[in-house]
């Protein structure tokens, strides 16, 4: 019993730890499990799969079997035969019957075959729809995840800046106490410290908001506490433009879904055209009837009737309804060439913009890392010079603001680059 309790506590602790400190992959898995749109897309895909099996009903035979029993009673009646009124006594009749019928569609202008192809294509299209829903959710989770990380790192920068301002304020207070600096320097230090404290408060609110947005996407309750982490920041890798465009045109889920829609439109056009052609079907029926139930299964050579029918139907005129429907379906199908060409241009433009953005971020990261080193050294020198009365407090505070700005800009660029990388992967179909 004690072992079971310990095991249960271990799993609870593990679960709590997972809830409190989540990686990007863990966030994605939670979102895919909890998101109702994903569950709906899975059900729609399963429904489309069932629809493929149902599409064969138009070519498979239709067989039915039936049986009946009738008890008929005729009350007393009168009738005239040769001018003589005659009475007819009450009579009772039993009628039993059973029968088998078979219907087979032999030809309908290709409608049944194209209907099967249409169902299979609909299933394929629904799979792309599900992929779009999944990948869109992954991109959204990635954006919210890095939004939280960005807010966390910025909070650390502002907290560090507040610590520096607080230390500077203490030094300034001491220097003012011994008459080394004027009171205006003390006021400036107090203002700087207060401004940094306000930045921390505002960033704490921003972090709470970002976490709340992430929890909504993950499908978690608002009162559930979570934290996110990324052990190692990996810079976005270089992506060749033409390679990215080629991958997008073969793997982009939206582009593939559009091509599937074109095939759907083409099959609908073919189905509409099939209404021009004749249809052929056959039916066969076999039945047995008798006043006694035993006649249904005895004397097989008696008490039966059978029929075999072959019918041909040729459409002639239906008030132009068929013709206009075919024209509309053809126009719908032909319009997809323009839609696909437009989508190609959009994908190419999107890929070019995202790669340009990522390359710009990559250069900006390198530049801002140098800026931070320079700002750190400048702050150190200004603080030392101020201590030796060779620099003003304003110069020290300006150096501190420059360092905070450079650190904050670097954090924003780093995580904006990761978001752009996720969007590029979605556009390429490699997410």
Explain briefly what this protein structure is.
The chain has 431 residues and is of the alpha+beta class. The chain is 67% helix and 15% strand.
Task: Outline the fold blueprint.
Blueprint: H1 2-20, E1 21-22, H2 24-34, H3 36-54, E2 62-74, E3 77-81, E4 84-88, E5 91-107, H4 111-177, H5 183-218, E6 227-228, H6 241-251, H7 253-273, E7 279-290, E8 304-313, H8 321-387, H9 393-428
Parallel strand pairs: 1-6
Antiparallel strand pairs: 2-5, 3-4, 5-7, 7-8
Give me some keywords for this one.
Outer membrane efflux proteins (OEP); elongated; 15% strand; 431 residues; alpha+beta; 9 helices; four-stranded antiparallel β-sheet
Structure description:
- With 431 residues, the protein is α+β, with helices and mostly antiparallel strands.
- The protein folds into two domains: 18-60 and 109-277 and 319-428, Up-down Bundle (Outer membrane efflux proteins (OEP)); 63-107 and 282-314, Outer membrane efflux proteins (OEP) (Single Sheet).
- It is built from nine helices and eight strands.
- The chain has helices at residues 2-20, 24-34, 36-54, 111-177, 183-218, 241-251, 253-273, 321-387, 393-428, and strands at 21-22, 62-74, 77-81, 84-88, 91-107, 227-228, 279-290, 304-313.
- A hairpin with a 2-residue loop joins strand 3 (77-81) and strand 4.
- The longest helix has 67 residues, at 111-177.
- The protein is elongated, with a radius of gyration of 40 Å.
